[in-house]
Amino acid sequence: MANGAANSGLKLLVTKGPQAQKAVGIWLFGCAAWVFSLVILGGITRLTRSGLSMTDWKFTGEIPPVSNEAWLLEFEKYKQSPEYKRVNKGMSLEDFKFIYWMEYAHRMWGRALGFVFAGPFAYFIAKGYVTRQLGLRLSALFALGGAQGLIGWWMVKSGLEEPTSEYVQPRVSPYRLATHLTSAFVIYCGILWTALSVVMPDPPTGSMSWVNGAAKIRKMAIPVSAAVGITAISGAFVAGNDAGHAYNSFPKMGDTWVPEDVFCMEPFIRNFFENTSTVQLNHRTLATTTLLSVAGLWLAARKIDMHPAVKSLIGSTLGMAALQVTLGISTLLMYVPTSLGSAHQAGALTLLSLMILLTHTLRRPSSTLLKSLAAAAKPT
């Protein structure tokens, strides 16, 4: 009842009533789901080594080959690339078509998102549903989405350059891959947070005791969220350096806990982000730390009086963190099959989604709602 009484004092992101709020919320959750699927498709494209099959990029989009002559022309372009010469020499046209369609689908799915986002956005603005605050936030996300296409080509271009050594396999820069993935995560988290803010302008409360409990947990949830995000980004360096194939054993790396070639590169920054042994050790350490952090958050929440929905969400987050670590270990032990590799990436984004939902639910209620709760708590 306190939540309902407080709604009139809230600065809502959507005007024109509950129906408009619901429509905008559904659209934004749909966009977030689209970005989620786009990230997974990008991971599959990388795992199938399809990302370097298209050797050019057009802002307006590429028309796929339809005739045999057009396919042969695209194949001829690919034959000039370092990947074909060093890795896929002798590849059949049919095999090339598979990796080409994978990369083409990833690019087109990303471009389609632009229309899915821009069309309803323009409609809701015309209807007067969108406030200035929401409009600016969504405009920034749309601009970042447009830049993501350029970042993607900047990443692919690095893999089309001739490697410095004849013994090195062509691959995209791990720094550019991490930038591309980080940008995708920022877009996804931004849309998801905004969608939650539209449909849940105030967090669930119920009593001042639960509000105070949420404030205590929020101080712990924010650094745990950061740990989840950093661990996910470190996975991009594992992928970019093919570090997942370096030590396919657990808990030890080969016959030792820390391989001898860890920290053997100079300078330190290059060693930290490019040495396959160091990169995999970093990811293992971060993953273990994240799991322990989520477990610590769960243990702390058990002793604090909070809304039952929040406690349930923390329990779900712990379960997802344990599943994600299990997926990571399984992917490593089975030499990174595409199915497990993509499931592991989906698990990282799912865990990040739960942390976004948790931190959003734990945020401080509006002053109007707090006054209503304080008034309800006073003895009559």
From TrEMBL:
Its main location: membrane. GO terms for cellular component: mitochondrial inner membrane. GO terms for molecular function: heme A synthase activity; metal ion binding; oxidoreductase activity, acting on NAD(P)H, heme protein as acceptor. It comes from the Eukaryota. The keyword Ligase does not apply. It is found in: Membrane. Pathway: Porphyrin-containing compound metabolism; heme A biosynthesis; heme A from heme O: step 1/1. Its cofactor is heme b. It catalyses: Fe(II)-heme o + 2 A + H2O = Fe(II)-heme a + 2 AH2. The chain crosses the membrane at residues 24-44, 108-126, 138-156, 176-199, 220-240, 281-301, 313-336, 342-362. It is a multi-pass membrane protein. Keywords: Heme biosynthesis, Iron, Membrane, Metal-binding, Oxidoreductase, Transmembrane, Transmembrane helix. One of its GO terms (biological process) is heme A biosynthetic process. InterPro entries: COX15/CtaA_fam, HemeA_Synthase_type2. HAMAP family: HemeA_synth_type2 (MF_01665). This is Cytochrome c oxidase assembly protein COX15. It comes from Panicum miliaceum.
